[in-house]
């Protein structure tokens, strides 16, 4: 942009100098007509104008050369900036590609995580069912233990009753034997 501003300023200066040169040429023509009588003065004035024109041409040549150098420097800088921009664009494309790959990997990992969470949920549900079954089994076991205790108590009571009946039967048998002996002794 500075080079463009310099080119614009130099162009304006060149245009101004060209306008001055044109004005000088016009002045020269006017003076030439006025000074027709004096060739020596006219030649001297012409030489002076020629020198000034030559000086202006030298200045113009220097400015053109300066403009060419600045234009070359501008072109070189523009090429360098273009290369830098292309390198950055390549870097951006590379980073965008990596970001896309990372997004795909993230999606894949999220999918795997979701699958694992589903499996964990399923296993949790199965564990809950097994714990419920365990609790149910423990309750059933307690109920069976209680029934077993009741059955053992009843069995104990039945054993007592059987023992009491056995004793009663033994007593009755003894009584029957005694009666038989008594009856048999009387005969």
Order of helices and strands: HH
The overall number of domains is: 1
- The total strand number stands at 0
Rounded mean pLDDT is 86
Low-confidence stretches: none
Give helix % range. over 70%
Largest sheet: none
Query: What is the radius of gyration?
Result: 64 Å
The global form is rod-shaped
Give the termini distance in whole angstroms.
160 Å
- Structural class comes to mainly alpha
Strand content: under 5%
Number of helices: 2
Question: What's the gist of this structure?
Answer:
This protein is mainly alpha-helical and 187 residues long.
List the helices and strands and how they pair.
Layout: H1 2-34, H2 39-186
Describe this structure in words.
With 187 residues, the chain is mainly α. The chain has one domain. It is built from two helices and no strands. The chain has helices spanning 2-34, 39-186. α1 (2-34) runs antiparallel to α2. The longest helix has 148 residues, at 39-186. The chain is rod-shaped and about 210 Å long. The mean pLDDT is 86.
What tags apply to this protein structure?
187 residues, single chain
């Amino acid at each position: 942009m500075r080079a463009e501003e310099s080119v614009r300023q130099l162009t304006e200066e060149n245009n101004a100098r060209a306008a001055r040169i044109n004005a000088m040429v016009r002045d020269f023509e006017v003076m030439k007509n006025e000074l027709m009588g004096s060739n020596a003065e006219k030649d001297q004035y012409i030489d002076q104008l020629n020198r000034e024109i030559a000086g202006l041409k030298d200045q113009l040549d220097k400015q053109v050369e300066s403009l060419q150098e600045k234009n070359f420097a501008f072109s070189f800088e523009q090429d360098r900036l273009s290369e830098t921009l292309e390198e950055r664009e390549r870097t951006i494309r590379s980073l965008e590609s990596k970001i896309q790959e990372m997004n795909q990997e993230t999606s894949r990992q999220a999918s795997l995580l979701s699958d694992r969470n589903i499996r964990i949920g399923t296993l949790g549900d199965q564990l809950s069912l097994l714990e419920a079954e365990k609790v149910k089994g423990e309750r059933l076991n307690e109920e069976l233990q209680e029934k077993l205790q009741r059955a053992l108590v009843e069995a104990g009571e039945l054993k007592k009753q059987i023992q009491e009946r056995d004793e009663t039967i033994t007593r009755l048998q003894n009584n029957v034997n005694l009666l038989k002996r008594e009856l048999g002794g009387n005969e």
